[in-house]
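LAB NOTEBOOK - FOLDING QUEUE
OPERATOR: T.R.
BATCH SIZE: 2
PURPOSE: Compare the predicted structure-token outputs for two unrelated chains run back to back under identical settings.
PRIORITY: normal
REVIEWER: second-year student, initials M.K.

ITEM 1
FIELD SEQUENCE / FIELD STRUCTURE:
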Amino acid sequence: MRVTRPMLALSGAVAILALTGCGGSGGKDEAAVPKEVSGSLEHIAAEAKCKPNMQTDADTIRQALCKKGKEKYVLATFATDRGQREWINTAKDYGGFYLVGRKWVAVGHEDVLQGLRGTLGGTVEVGLNHAEHAPGGGGRDDKSSHSGHQEN
């Protein structure tokens, strides 16, 4: 039997549901996440108690550096949902953690984003871990285990 991407995706979804105990009961973690904030970069930064250090101010994306304690994170807002999704999909190829809201994203250490999630709402997405595929990275030599690589 050949394993295809749709089968892997379905298997992954089933595993995630089993691990999270998803049954619509809405555990205490769900209750702790507030309604997702929206608005300008300045508004979202204010909600996160961040004084944004602007890095990019363009029509399609606005991006700033923020601090939470000793940790830094990037906060970005997007003009369109599509632009945001394209940016996230490209960025996730480099690994990392992303707190995603409607037309905004925060990028930083997982602990920082979990704290921000309690303030800003949103969902956490995880980028690809290429370390397990690097020579000497301790990963398997199976290219099919990573959907970002294809055999010719």
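ITEM 2
FIELD SEQUENCE / FIELD STRUCTURE:
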Amino acid sequence: MASLLVPRARKSPDKAPRRSPALPAAPAPVGETRLPVPVDLPATLGCDAVGVPARYGFRILSRLPAKGCVYADADWWWWLVPAGSDLDLTWPLPVCYAPGAVVPDRRPRLIHHPDGGSPYSPPIPLYLLTCQLTGIAPAWSVPSQVRSAL
């Protein structure tokens, strides 16, 4: 059986040994922050947030029929929605659902203040838009049948 020959680098006595280039430093861990609701807007339904990569931000903002508070950083845009807006919904990837509106702390700032008196974007139109933009069919669970005692 023939053995495999693996070429080896020649060692030169007059040259220093080769070293691999230094690896870039790992990014600092990102903490978390809660998106603040403006004081003039009552958040009586609690707050969660729906995040999308920034490349989808302007398209969603321009197509939503009603817009609540929208926050953005360099990489993500976040919409405030009522708490529990993930119930019976499967948000498509790469969308990120953040309960309690707790998001990675990349210094998101408010970029859209709603004209009305609610901080929320309507979750169903937002969900359908994210599905359309990501090319994923909407999917939600069917609630169990409720039987009447009558």
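REVIEWER COMMENT (ITEM 2): The mean pLDDT is 84.
FOLLOW-UP: none requested
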